[in-house]
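Re: beginner question about structure tokens

> Can someone show what the tokenized structure looks like for a real chain? I only ever see the sequence side.

Sure, here's an example I had lying around. Input first:
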Amino acid sequence: MSPSDVATLIDTHAAPLLLFARQFCDAAEDVVQDAFIKLVTASHCPDEVVGWLYRVVRNGAIDAARTSRRRRQRESAVARPVRWFVEDEVAGLEAEVAVAALERLPQEQREVIVARLWGGLGFEQIAAVASCSASTAFRRFTAGIEALRRLLGEACPDQSKRA
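And the corresponding structure tokens:
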């Protein structure tokens, strides 16, 4: 197929192919362009070029619509708030309140607290997971617990009264 034949096909059929593709998907321009690229790069020219273009556009538009639908489903699933706890109450706290407080902590503190309190990991294990030293994991844990107590309105125990 010569370049002038392709140009004639584009001039004659691109607009109707766009209209045809729009009934299936939102990315009609991309689908039609892909169809013409497939035509130009095909090893042999189809017998009925116009019918072939419509079939390729239809199949491409249906695929694009499926892809778009899956992407929207994934994005909406990710956008939904994550439910951290199965229970509505966690160690005397409302789960929503606990999650809100945890989400306000820096990531480093939050991961150490969750790994320690709910995962039962020791500071050496947490250090291996978080790629830090055990003392850093302990400092993050202590700072995070203090921040959680402030956020939740719980008084910190007086460290000087411990003996």
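Each token stands for a local structural state, so reading them left to right follows the chain. The beta strands are 89-90, 93-94.
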